[in-house]
Design brief:
This protein folds into 3 domains: 71 residues, Arc Repressor Mutant, subunit A (Orthogonal Bundle); 110 residues, GAF domain (Beta-Lactamase); 65 residues, no CATH class. It is built from 12 helices and 10 strands. A 5-stranded antiparallel beta sheet has the order 7-3-10-9-8. A hairpin with a 2-residue loop joins strand 9 and strand 10. The longest helix is centred in the N-terminal third of the chain and has 16 residues.
Length: 261
């Protein structure tokens, strides 16, 4: 790691822990850095010119930019959690100011597709079935989906424009058990960032979790300055999707370390 990268990572960590602008002397003292404050200020200037640090006033400390924080979390976060502690999630979401959307996964698989006189098709999953209008191309499509789970079929059906199939699967998945931890924080973000009512409802009814995979999301789903992290994991023996939303400056490493079961 170069001096510049080391100092950038150090100031990001300091900012995440303090939520305050960081000066060169303070950063040197916090991490016992051997470089002089003047050397640190020189690197701060380079990082500012490259768009990684911001400074409100000429005499104030620096803060990492949105781009710097995004790159930091893309490097630091991983998704190797076999299980999570629900009570710890509840506690830490409120302590850190995060919202956590949890939805039980439907692990049923499509077992067979019945053609009813070229009028309707019955899709039989392990524990439920749905009925949709027949079409030969759609029947061939569904034959290739045997063994797939509802969420996978739903994503593909949306991509290919199989609207009725998608809508029926949304109804099923929307009825699966779900919960929102610290919803007030999400609504506060929605109001402050003036989110569209349609987008807000997709989060609150769980639809948003039907259309995302494990990974990290930024402006494609959320306002600038926020991060969403989606995991497939377990609470005890129940398979869930867990979507964590918060400001980029929150301490997600601390959060994930503490909730691991």
């Amino acid at each position: 790691m170069t001096k510049k990268d080391f100092l950038l990572e150090s100031i990001i960590q300091a900012y995440i822990h303090s939520s305050e602008p960081i000066g060169s002397t303070a950063l040197k003292d916090m991490y016992n850095i051997t470089y002089s404050p003047a050397t640190i200020r020189g690197y701060f200037k380079k990082l500012g010119d490259e768009g990684y640090l911001a400074q409100e006033h000429i005499s104030s400390g620096r803060t990492p930019t949105t781009d710097a924080l995004k790159e930091y979390w893309l490097r630091r976060l991983d998704f190797s959690m076999s299980g999570v502690d629900y009570q710890m999630i509840e506690y830490l979401a409120k302590e850190l100011g995060l919202t956590v959307f949890i939805k039980q996964q439907l692990n049923d698989k499509l077992q067979r597709v019945l053609n009813i006189e070229n009028l309707y098709m019955i899709l039989e999953f392990d524990k439920f079935s749905i009925t949709i209008k027949y079409s030969a191309p759609l029947h061939r499509f569904l034959d290739d989906m045997i063994g797939f789970e509802p969420t996978a079929i739903m994503k593909i059906s949306k991509e290919v424009g199989a609207t009725q199939l998608y809508d029926e699967l949304v109804k099923i998945t929307s009825n699966s058990a779900k919960n929102i931890i610290n919803v007030k924080q999400f609504l506060k973000m929605a109001i402050e960032c003036d989110l569209d009512d349609t987008i807000i409802n997709k989060f609150l009814n769980g639809e948003i979790l039907n259309n995302i995979s494990d990974g990290i999301y930024f402006e494609e789903l959320l306002p600038s300055g926020f991060i969403g992290i989606n995991h497939s994991t377990k609470v005890i023996d129940t398979d869930i999707n867990m979507f964590v939303i918060g400001h980029l400056s929150k301490d997600y490493e601390y959060f994930y370390k503490r909730i691991a079961a």
